[in-house]
Design a protein that fits this description.
By secondary structure, this protein is an alpha+beta fold. It has a single domain, classed as 2-Layer Sandwich (Beta Polymerase, domain 2). Strands 1-2-5-4-3 form a 5-stranded mixed β-sheet. A hairpin with a 6-residue loop joins strand 3 and strand 4. Helix 1 packs across helix 2. The C terminus is likely disordered.
Length: about 130
């Protein structure tokens, strides 16, 4: 089983919104075969708590245009790691230091990378670097 088209579309919208708020290393992983609770993990990072929160605001604003609201939001007050749970898509926006420490891409390295269609930028290159065959 692979991620649904609607989950991938949601992840792409969220990724574009994160990129507009200057998120770093935006990567999406298809976790549908390993995790029954979600199809896609979207991971992005920022160098400060303020920017983490700005990215979260941008993502929520963009997805609300499609009548999507998170069923759960965690970590907003700290601004170090915010999790937005949209059921089929779980978005992790992390401070750069926390992203390195927790290394979600390494934990889920056996999952395929989702093409976010962000163009030829650093995020796309980062995604290609985490892909396994």
């Amino acid at each position: 089983m692979t991620a649904t088209d609607s989950s991938i579309a949601t992840a792409r919208h969220a990724a574009r919104a994160a990129a507009e708020k200057l998120a770093d290393d935006i990567v999406a992983l298809d976790v549908s075969e390993r995790l029954a609770l979600a199809d896609v993990f979207l991971i992005a990072s920022a160098p400060s708590e303020r920017q983490v929160n700005a990215i979260v605001d941008g993502v929520e604003e963009e997805l609300s245009k499609f009548d999507l609201k998170p069923t759960r939001r965690e970590g907003r007050s700290g601004g170090r790691w915010v999790l937005l749970d949209y059921s089929d898509v779980v978005i992790h926006v992390q401070h750069e230091e926390d992203r390195v420490f927790y290394a979600l891409e390494r934990l889920w390295k056996d999952c395929p990378v989702v093409d976010l269609q962000l163009g030829d930028d650093a995020s796309a290159k980062a995604a290609a670097g985490t892909e396994t065959e």
